Amino acid sequence: MHLPWRQKQQASKTRWSATKDAFKTHVATAQANTKDTLQEYNANVKDRLRYKAYELGSRPAAYLVLSGFLLGSVSTLGVTFVYRRYFRRLRTAEWVTPDILQRKRWVRGVVTSVGDADNFRLYHTPGLGGVPTLSKELKEQTIHVRIAGVDAPEGSHFGRQAQPYAVEALAWLKDAIEGRIVYCQLVRRDQYSRIVSVVTLSPPFFPGWLITGRSLALEMIRAGTGLTYEQAGAEYGKYGKDEFLRAEAESR
């Protein structure tokens, strides 16, 4: 006997079975895709973690090498700068470079000889350096200094007679500075390759870099062994020309 409702029920079951199979297939496919995606994500995470671990492991060594190189370079430059500026001895006037004169650098040294009443030989003693005891060791090792701001009578040179009071002026200067420490501010080079310098005597109780001693040029003028040098390019240090002229007027 043909029953229409049974046919409809059977068709409904068939459609439901197909839908259920399609859903199962979809779920299985989605799970497979999700699994593949998770596996790929995990693999990417592991790769990134390995890279970070390698980067963190190698970076300190590179930083240490670079930091050591930079620190060594800076230290070398610093030591070189300090040595060249404060501890390198200026052997002769040729060692006095234009940049030293431009800075008007102060140097400390011992007067080894006085050649005339307004110039002398200086053995530069930077740091804790001393002066050789043997005279032969001083050959070509001193700076020829011309005292700035003062003009003293010249001795006999090249057949010319000595100027009045040249002997007395030379004797005074020898007694004042020969074998003693003086401080020189290097100003310029004159036509005779001498280094024109503002010269101060060593203070009696304190180091010269702490307290400025008396001006040698002013002491010469007060003693009557020199006059104020008034030609172009004259240097008088911190005292100025007026102080030199006042000292000259008082000494007369």
Care to describe what's here?
By secondary structure, this protein is of the alpha+beta class. The protein is rod-shaped. A hairpin with a 2-residue loop joins strand 1 (106-116) and strand 2. The mean pLDDT is 79. The longest helix is centred in the first third of the chain and has 84 residues, at 4-87. Helix 4 packs parallel to helix 5 (241-251). The strands form 2 sheets. The protein has a 5-stranded mixed barrel with strand order 1-2-3-6-5. The chain has a two-stranded antiparallel ribbon with strand order 4-7. It has helices at residues 4-87, 98-103, 166-177, 216-222, 241-251, and strands at 106-116, 119-124, 143-147, 150-151, 181-189, 195-201, 227-228.
Keywords for this structure?
single chain; 252 residues; alpha+beta; 5-stranded mixed barrel; two-stranded antiparallel sheet; 48% helix; rod-shaped
SSE layout and pairing:
Layout: H1 4-87, H2 98-103, E1 106-116, E2 119-124, E3 143-147, E4 150-151, H3 166-177, E5 181-189, E6 195-201, H4 216-222, E7 227-228, H5 241-251
Parallel strand pairs: 3-6
Antiparallel strand pairs: 1-2, 1-5, 2-3, 4-7, 5-6
Helix pairs in contact: 4-5
Element order: H for helix, E for strand:
HHEEEEHEEHEH
Compute the average pLDDT: 79
Helix content: 40-55%
Structural class, by secondary structure, is alpha+beta
Gyration radius (Cα, Å) is 46 Å
Helix count, DSSP H or I runs of 4 or more residues: 5
* Overall body shape: rod-shaped
In total, the number of strands is: 7
Side by side, the strands of the main sheet go: 1-2-3-6-5
Enumerate the spans where pLDDT stays under 50 for 5 or more consecutive residues: none
Largest sheet: 5 strands, mixed, barrel
| Strand fraction | 15-25%
Report the end-to-end length measured between terminal Cα atoms: 162 Å
